């Protein structure tokens, strides 16, 4: 069996199509897992949903931004924080406009219920008996700090304790990494869109398994970031400045030096 696993598309259809093309160039797959953050913060929230739901044998989980769209929750800053720190007002305004725009598009195009019904996790037992868990941020949650490079072994052990799995696959942080603790292997996919690593590529993973075991192959894919910038500008996206910073490499994480 061959499984493609991706996460954090964030409304970027150009990046998603580049990943899907790479999957086909690698020989295709039997099924797909897409681990959340489908639409919010991007220029084509519905185009992404149409594309992923047309994939054969696809399973999906909820990401934090998918939940924000439905519940009205926000990642911050809060109104109170902006009142206390006026320099945050513009960020709060941009964030509010961005989610309001995305909510409107999702609701108008009939995708509200689909997002609202996304499960927290997806599970699979491989032919060799390996238990696999797919979730957006960490076992049992779609938000928070997630599986990031700064975690010490004790904290990672605590995060993985609820997994009840041998292999845990996540996204959320946009930073690809692989760790192992107490025999549990965890892979962070990175992200399809909004890169924070220097090469600014879309990342995902291919999982190939049979009765003898499994192989997990992280993949990194170039895509036309200038075309993404132009698409963002063409629709006068309310968070155009914020989004183009990712495409221009202005959001590289401090974790790179960690």
From TrEMBL:
Coiled-coil residue windows: none
Pfam family name, one: Metallophos_2
InterPro entries membership: Ap4A_hydrolase, Calcineurin-like_PHP_lpxH, Metallo-depent_PP-like, Pesterase_MJ0912
Transmembrane domains' residue ranges: none
Ranges where the Calcineurin-like phosphoesterase domain occurs: 1-211
Source domain of life: Bacteria
PANTHER family: BLL5683 PROTEIN, METALLOPHOSPHOESTERASE
Family label: Belongs to the metallophosphoesterase superfamily. YfcE family.
Protein name: Metallophosphoesterase
Organism: Dictyobacter formicarum
């Amino acid at each position: 069996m061959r499984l493609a696993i991706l996460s954090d598309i964030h409304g970027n259809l150009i990046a998603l199509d580049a990943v899907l093309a790479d999957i086909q160039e690698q020989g295709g797959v039997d099924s797909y897992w897409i681990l959340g953050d489908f639409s919010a913060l991007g220029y084509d929230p519905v185009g992404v949903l149409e594309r992923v739901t047309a994939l054969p044998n696809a399973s999906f989980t909820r990401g934090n931004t998918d939940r924000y769209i439905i519940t009205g929750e926000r990642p911050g800053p809060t109104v109170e924080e902006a009142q206390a720190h006026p320099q945050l007002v513009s960020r709060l305004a941009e964030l509010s406009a961005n989610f309001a725009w995305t909510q409107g598009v999702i609701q108008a195009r009939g995708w509200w219920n689909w997002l609202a019904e996304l499960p927290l996790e997806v599970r699979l037992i491989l032919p060799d008996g390996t238990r696999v868990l797919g979730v957006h941020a960490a076992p049992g949650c779609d938000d928070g700090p997630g599986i990031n490079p700064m975690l010490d072994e004790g904290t990672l052990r605590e995060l993985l304790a609820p997994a009840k799995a041998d292999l845990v696959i996540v996204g959320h942080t946009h930073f690809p990494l692989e760790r192992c603790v107490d025999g549990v292997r965890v892979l962070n996919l990175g992200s399809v869109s909004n890169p924070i690593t220097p090469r600014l590529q879309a990342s995902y993973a291919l999982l190939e398994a049979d009765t003898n075991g499994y192989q997990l192959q992280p993949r990194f894919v170039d895509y036309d970031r200038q075309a993404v910038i132009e698409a963002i500008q063409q629709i006068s996206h309310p968070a155009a400045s914020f989004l183009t910073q990712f495409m221009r490499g202005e959001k590289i994480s401090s974790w790179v030096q960690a």
